[in-house]
């Protein structure tokens, strides 16, 4: 897990990652993830700092139900100095909705799914949780650490992630928390805020 440079959110809002191996993706010439993440590919890649930056691309979509939580996460990410970008789908494998790059502390949202408010919210929660995991380990060292003890994650969530990651067991402990965060209101905000304040945090759910 220490060698992983990117954490990827998958196609379905209930699915945190495509089961395809990250190493296979990075070796594939079919995708341009590394080019985008390195900053070499700039076409169709725009930094976002608020929900308005997304809604400008989709003026007919109502983001009001997610605006407060998304804006709080984006604001806190800026405080941590993690940049968020909206990028064309050509840079992503099929059905992938988000990527967090631990090496450069940036994450990317797939514009293909940005017209769906629930997808935007879930993906930012998910990737933001990985940022918090990265922060807990020391945000400049490309490692992740567990924030939430597994026993506090619903069994259905754990079972689902274990099924998705059958071939990649090193991902499982980190993705269980990120999946839980993607469907749980405001917990990513709490984790990111703790990171921004420099707290050595760990969630305890009673």
Instruction: Note the overall shape.
Output: globular
Between the first and last Cα atoms, what is the distance in angstroms?
29 Å
List the uncertain runs: 1-31
Strand content: 5-15%
- Structural class per helix/strand content? alpha+beta
Element string (H = helix, E = strand):
EHHEHHEEEHHHH
Strand order of the largest sheet: 1-4-5-3-2
Tell me, rounded to a whole number, the average pLDDT.
82
Q: Could you estimate the helical fraction of the residues in percent?
A: 40-55%
Total number of beta strands: 5
How many strands, what sense, and barrel or not for the largest sheet? 5 strands, mixed
Number of helices: 8
Radius of gyration: 16 Å
Protein architecture, described:
- This protein has 206 residues and is of the alpha+beta class.
- 42% of the residues lie in helices and 10% in strands.
- The protein has a five-stranded mixed beta sheet with strand order 1-4-5-3-2, with helices on one face.
- Strand 4 and strand 5 form a beta hairpin.
- The two termini are 29 Å apart.
Short overview:
By secondary structure, this protein is an alpha+beta fold.
Descriptive terms for the model:
5 strands; 5-stranded mixed β-sheet; 206 residues; 42% helix; alpha+beta; globular; disordered N terminus; 8 helices
List strands and helices in order, with pairings.
Blueprint: E1 6-9, H1 22-27, H2 33-38, E2 45-47, H3 51-55, H4 64-80, E3 83-87, E4 98-101, E5 106-110, H5 117-137, H6 155-164, H7 172-182, H8 187-196
Parallel strand pairs: 3-5
Antiparallel strand pairs: 1-4, 2-3, 4-5
